[in-house]
Amino acid sequence: MNIILAGYNIDYETIKEIRSSLPDSDNLTPETISAAYARISRNPLPVNELREIARKEVDKARKSNQNIVFEMGHNSVAEHAVFNIDVLGVSRLIVEEIEKFRLCSFTEKSQRYIRLEDDFVIPREVKSAGLGDIFVETIREQNSLYHELYGGLREYVFETNQDKVSDPANRSMLEGWAKEDARYIVSLATEAQLGMTVNARNLELMLRRSAAHSLKEVNEYGQNLYRTISGVAPSLIRYTEASRYDRLTGEELGKKTLTIMDKIGRGKSGSRKIPGRDENVVLVDATPDGDDRIIASLLHSSSDLSLDRCMAVVTKMDASEKKDIVKTAFRHIESYYSPLREFEYADLTFEVTVSASCFAQLKRHRMATLTCQDYNPGLGVTIPPAVKAIGMEDSFMETVGQTEDVFKKIKDVSPAAAP
Question: Of 3.30.1360.170, 3.30.2130.30, 3.20.20.140, 3.90.180.10, which CATH number belongs to 84-244+381-413?
Fold first, then answer.
C-alpha cells in the first residue's frame, strides 16, 4: 500500500507569491489533478507519475480535460478541481440561492452570534423603479428596532437565566439568544458573507443557474464569480450562460399551474394552506411500514440473506425484538455521528410554514430534498415569545406593517426584488 498526498487547498495569496517567485511556472492550477485522475482508468502508470506528467504538460492536460469532460461526458473528472471562494456583501436573500447547491460546502456569517450593523443591499430593480428612498427608510426603521430589541432582550435573557449568568463562559451564549430573537425584525436585504468550497462541476452549474435567475443581484454574483475563477481552470468550466432549461422551466411551470388552479376554481388568491389544516408543520406522506423497512435493511447489511427474505423475517419478529435491533444500531452513537444509511430507507415528507429565520436553519440540511415557494407575507409573521415578554410586540408589528406596505409597492414593479 502507498498513500500519497496529491495536494490540498492553500490560500490564493500564497499561490500568487509562488507565481511571483516562479514567473515561468504555469502548473499552479487544479486542472492538472483532474487531468491526471482522468487518465487513471486507461493508463497503467502509477497515479503519482500521471500527476507529474500533467504538471509538466499543462496545455496537454487542459486539452485532455476538455475532451474527457465535454466531448466524452465524464463530468465527474471536473469534481477533482476544488475552489475556495470568499463571498462578501451579498444579501441574505441570495445566500439562500447560493446555498441551494447541495454538493458544495458553506460556512456563513451567523446572525445569531454576531451583532448586526446596518449594512444592507439595495436591489438594482428597486433603484430603477424610483423606490430607493422608501426602501432605505424602511430598512433603517427595521435596523433601529433591531438594536432596541437587542437591548431589551439582552436584559430579559440575563434576568431570566440567573443560574447561567454566574458563569462567565455563558455570557456569549446568553447574548446570542438575544441577538437570535432580535434578528426576526431585520430584512433579507441585510448584508451577509460566507466561505464556499465548490468543485468545478458544481461551480459551472452555479454559474449557469445564476445567469438564468430573475434577480439582478444573483446575475451580478454569477458574473463576479466567473471573473474570479475564469483564468484558473478554463478547461473545466465551459457552459456558463443561461440555458433555456434554467431560464424558462420555472416560468412555464408557473403558468401551467395557474391554468390548472383557475380550472378548479382556485386562482391567484386561492389559499396556499392544505384544506382543513391550520398547522404550521404537516406530515404529508410517509413510507408505509417504515420501521419494518429500516429493520429489514439492517438485517440485510448484517447478513447474507436477500432483502425480501429479511422483510419476511421482520414480519415474524415481535415488537421487543424489533426495538432491540434499533437500539443496537444506536448503542454507541455520539451527538456528532450520523445514523447508519439503513435509516434512509424510510422517507417522511412534510409541508412546513416557517419564518425566514427558521428556514435559514433548515437550509443547512442539504442532503435532504428541500423545495420552497416564494416569500409570501400573507402567511403571517413569527413573533419570538421573548419579544412579547418584554412588551415590544406592538413596535414589532408596526414595523412589520410598514415593511409589508413597501413589499407590495415593490412587488408591483419587480416581483423578484420584493422579498
Answer: 3.30.1360.170
